[in-house]
Backbone:
């Protein structure tokens, strides 16, 4: 769907939304993606794929840092 339709669906969802592949296979930097998901869209859960332990550590530390500012 178009971005505006997808955002409208997320905003009007009656059930929890799980963001899948929010980093767009590495095309979106983790900080930018997680800021957008957690702060702007108020999404509570997302699933990301990683290719290495280093990538997992980077993504998880960025996500946790952002989430810690929300509570």
Residues:
């Amino acid at each position: 769907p178009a971005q505006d339709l997808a955002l409208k669906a997320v905003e009007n969802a009656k059930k929890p939304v799980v963001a899948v592949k929010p980093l767009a296979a590495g095309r979106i930097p983790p900080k930018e993606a997680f800021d957008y998901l957690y702060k702007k869209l108020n999404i509570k859960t997302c699933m990301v794929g990683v290719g290495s332990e280093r990538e997992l550590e980077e993504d998880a530390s960025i996500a946790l840092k952002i989430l810690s500012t929300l509570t």
Observations:
- The chain has a mean pLDDT of 93.
- The chain has three helices and two strands.
- The CA atoms of residues 19 and 46 lie 4 Å apart.
- Helices lie at 3-11, 30-40, 53-68.
